[in-house]
Amino acid sequence: MADQTFTSERPKGGPTEIARLNDWLRAHITAPVNNRIVMTSGIADLIGDVSIFRGFRKRAELIRTVRDYDRFDDAINPHGERDMGRFEFEGTACYWKIDYYDLDLIGGSEDPADPFQTTRVLTIMRVDER
């Protein structure tokens, strides 16, 4: 019987490439190409009515906060992929998190380091919605 060897469950391209693609998504948060940006109802409640200028300003502030996030540490970024962040918005603790799906958004991506087979979904949520 052949010896079993440990096979890493980390993607082929590794955390450096995944981090680069995650940073690209956040840098292009208003034009994510085939990726998706979503927010929970709790975040929408914090923003308020975007049909008035005040709501638009809050939404722009939220987007800038996620786009410019740079407080990665080992607790929030243990694999070095820069796929999650924690921040305060409107006095509320919030997270943003990037998940990796196949192109049809049916299942997980087999290789999150490959943008040709991965759709990134960045979700913005309140900590208490987790």
UniProtKB/TrEMBL annotation:
Domain of life: Bacteria
Pfam families membership: DUF3768 (PF12599)
Listed InterPro entries: DUF3768 (IPR022243)
The protein's name: DUF3768 domain-containing protein
Provenance organism: Sphingomonas glacialis
